[in-house]
Amino acid sequence: MKGLKMKPRKSVASGFEKRELAIKPLRLAVQLFNQADFVCAATLAGAAEEILGRMARKRTDTTALDSDMHFWSQVADMVGKPPPGRKKIVDAHNRIRNQLKHNESGDHEWVTADFEFEAQDLIDRAIRNY
Asked: How far is CA 105 from the centre of its chain?
């Protein structure tokens, strides 16, 4: 921005609890979801979900993912199929979250998804982990 002069600020260190560092982006994710910015909402909710999931695991030894695994196991049992393995469920749950934050191939790729659904799912999982 031409002509805009900003006064340099001295950086000041501050501290936050991990839970607060997860809740801040989760709140923003909900706001962005309500504004139909589903990609940014999914990215922020995914970060919050990961932090809160680890905290839930340590606190209660269970996470939203565990609950979802139980659900899919019951569905499989109802239709007479073997339950899906943990890795299959984890990969399906985290596919878009990981594609939004990683680019292992380094290629310029397309990411195709129902971003509204993915953002809603990640927000839901983060809240259940909270």
From this structure: 21
